[in-house]
Design goal:
Blueprint: H1 7-10, H2 15-47
């Protein structure tokens, strides 16, 4: 399970916006990595 964000981040006004933006970025990055892995695997399959 993910670690709770530090208090100095959650006390600030609008902190939830920042944290949700970070979470969205993390999800997009993971999707990008997965897509690259899938493309590489596909390319390897076609070569042989």
């Amino acid at each position: 399970m993910a670690k709770a964000p530090p208090k100095y981040l959650t006390r600030r006004r609008g902190a939830h916006k920042f944290l949700s933006w970070l979470a969205a970025l993390q999800i997009r990055w993971q999707g990008y990595r997965d897509a690259r892995k899938a493309l590489k695997a596909r390319r390897r399959k076609h070569r042989s």
